[in-house]
Every structure is written in C-alpha cells, then in structure tokens.
Amino acid sequence: MKKMTTGIAGTILIAATLFVGAAISDKILGDANGETNEAAVKTQIPTTANSQKVVYAPPSIEEVPDGPMKEAILYGYELVNNTHVAADDYVGNQLSCTSCHAGAGYDEQASSLVGVTANYPQYIARSGGIVTIEERINGCMVRSMNGKKFDMNSDELEAMVAYFAYISQGVPIGAEREWAGTSNMKSVPIPDVAHGEELYAQSCIACHAADGSGTGATTGPALWGENSFNDGAGMARMSKMAGYIQNNMPVGAGGTLSDQDAADLAAYILSQDRPEWANHDKDWPKGGRPNDLMNKEKREQVKNGTIDWEQVLSTN
C-alpha cells in the first residue's frame, strides 16, 4: 500500500481545510453518484456565493504543480478513477468512483465532482446530522463500494480529499454548480418491469452484460450481483436510479430516454439481487425514510408480483 510522509499528510489536511473554508464537512459520489440530493436539506452557509454562478474550469490533472501536494493529488486521482484496484483492501465489489462519476469526476456531463468541496459540510437526512467530506467519502465506501471505511487519518482518505480540493479550485463555498445536476426523478411513473427487461436486452447488455455483472468498473460497471453496490446506496432508490439513467444513459445520448423508459429500466435493474446493507434500521434516524428504496423485501415483491408501485413511489 502506498504511503506518504507525515509532513505531506499534514499539508494535505491544511490545504483541504483551506479549500473547504469556514465550513465543517457531506457527499460525493454513490454512489456517487448523486447521493448528496437524497439528503433533502442542505446546511445554508451565509455567503454571497450562494447566488453566484461559476464557470466550469477545473485545473488539469496533467498540470498538477510540483510540491508536497502533488503526490497526494495524483494518488487521490488514482483512488477515485480506479478505486477497486487502488483501494482493494477497502472495496467489496468491482466498482470505482468513476463508475458513477465519469472521468474521476471530471466529466461535466456525468455527475461531475468538480467543486464538490464547496458543498460540505452538509446536512444529510439519511445520516440525521451534519456530514463532512471525509464522512461522505466513507459513506460511499461502505454503500456504493460495499466495503469498509478508511481510517480518518489514512493516506487514502487524505489523498482523496486533496484531489477533490484540487479539482474544486475556483469554486467558492455555496456557489451554484450548474454542471453538477441532480440524478433524481421527482415524479417516477409506475414502471413496467417486463418492458425494462426488454430495453435492457436491447441497449444495455453490450456494456453491462446480460447478467448485470458488467464489463469493467470504468467501461460498464456491474448493475447487480455481488460485484455491484449494496441496497443501502443512494442508487438503490427508484428516484435516483431512474434519474441517473435518464440523465446519463445511453453513454453519449443522455437525456434521450423518456421518464417511462428510464423508470422501467430502473425497476428491472433494482429488482435483481444485490448485496444487502446491514444498517437499514439506523438510516433516517429523525424520520422521513423514503418508500422507494428497493431493499430485499421489495425485490421479492417484484418477483412474486405483489409489489404496490403506487405506495413505493408515493414519496417521490
């Protein structure tokens, strides 16, 4: 496992703090893939940047300046882009952050992570409290990556924070990041799972395989099965999965699917078996648990034809 000197690690923490500013740290990724928005409420930070629009102009990973931060930033990039390999001791499936946040978060059109540190700290209803950027990363590790958390002073976590701070340069706290978007369908139509299966066979198997096992973390991530995200991830919700599919799929043609087709695909994908999250009972401790989370019980209901989709989608 790659190690950095104590001096560099300390510099990383100082730099990350400067980038995050006067805040104390929530999400990324899960999941990526937009789990920030499953939180319902954001901490309002008093700043004129709340109404300020910023230009999408992240610094190039090819031009990281020399100095004590460079090693950490490049290591963070590798951890984000190739998570299941670079952090194999912590990842329990075959996914990477890039599986949802294309190009290690650089892709402006696919759940970009540029400027993510400007959104933390943030209140997340699922956690029931204020979450830091470090805690948000670890949330993705145990849910989207179906793995385990990094130690708070680990080289890996420090490097990921350094990388996110680097690509967030020029984005002030509270600024409006138009490119970030939201992978959330506010009104999901009643899905037709059989039609979703047909659509999947027509358009998705080339990248994600007929059995959902995928062709690679960055080329076609596993959508179900033991090497996919667990059912505690944000993407395990119908509103999130349908929204992500509609916004980003097919690759290069995002936004072309109708609400109905995206919902049908989401229902088919989320009705398949996947790892189970062991702490469902601890999520949303202050109430507001959404109905559209597709856990094992709902997956079984889809299979035996007893699911009440109107009830499942009633909170969306």
From TrEMBL:
Chain ranges of the Cytochrome c domain: 71-168, 191-273
Keyword Aminoacyl-tRNA synthetase among record annotations: no
Protein keywords: Heme, Iron, Metal-binding, Oxidoreductase
Single Gene Ontology MF annotation: heme binding
Signal peptide: none
Gene3D superfamilies found in the cross-reference section: Cytochrome c-like domain (1.10.760.10)
The EC number(s) this enzyme carries: 1.8.2.2
InterPro entries found in the cross-reference section: Cyt_c-like_dom, Cyt_c-like_dom_sf, Cytochrome_c-type_DH
Ranges where the record places region Disordered: 278-316
Source organism, top-level taxon: Bacteria
Oxidoreductase found in the keyword field: yes
Descriptive protein name: Thiosulfate dehydrogenase
